[in-house]
Protein: DUF368 domain-containing protein
Organism: Massiliimalia timonensis
Amino acid sequence: MQRNRKKIIKMLIYFLQGALIGTGAILPGISGGVLCVAFGVYEPMMEFLVHPFRSFRKQYTLFLPILLGGLVGFVLLARVVESLFTASATVAIALFTGLICGTVPEMMRKSSASAPKKGWSCFVLTLVLSFIFFSILESGIESNIEANFFWYLFCGLIWGLSMVIPGLSSSSLLLFMGLYQPMTEGIGRLDLQVLVPLAIGFIVTILVASRVVNKLLKEHGTFMSRIILGFVLSSVLMIAPTSFAGTEQLLLSMACFAAGFLTARQMDLVKIKQRQE
């Protein structure tokens, strides 16, 4: 009975994490890949994308709730959070920043578990270069491309890359190109002229890129963990709010950051406790 209860709690946590990943994947400034890393499911997900059936059979209690949660987050929660972004993007981003920062202690622990002194030069180099790259993207000039089948295919490709490369926000890049709004409107209408090319681009990119990343994780695990950590921290530096409309928004942002941080930390502590038992 106790074992079943723990199993249910763990699956509920994975479902919630999947919902947040699905939500973050489509929101401006947020990277689905970063949230996968933050919640400790990045490596299993890369393995799943390369060997879906074998991985699902071995870890169905992880993948089933994560995938269902991701679908719920993408279809339902994204609209709720999009409304929050419209009301106050600063407060919404503070919440997601807190969620990511709350997982950093566990990420640091995992990253240093096997070889505590190796790969830190890779971490520093990745942190600096990715920060410069994301800064260039952020300062890009918005263009007005006419959305069509091939551009929606491109949207799927970029979206897929953002799930594999932590820190790359597909939504931010698509906003600069003027493709984000027509894409999200098409998804909201369930328009097949948008959904089909989007899905093709996403699936093809995921299948190809995940194989490369999975191989690197297996052959150079320590260095890859440092590189991924660098991507995550640089993305946090990029999205963290730095200006506020007033004292009220500052206090609300601080409260949302704290709530996100404590929620993520508590989820990590629950999983650590369950592993120890």
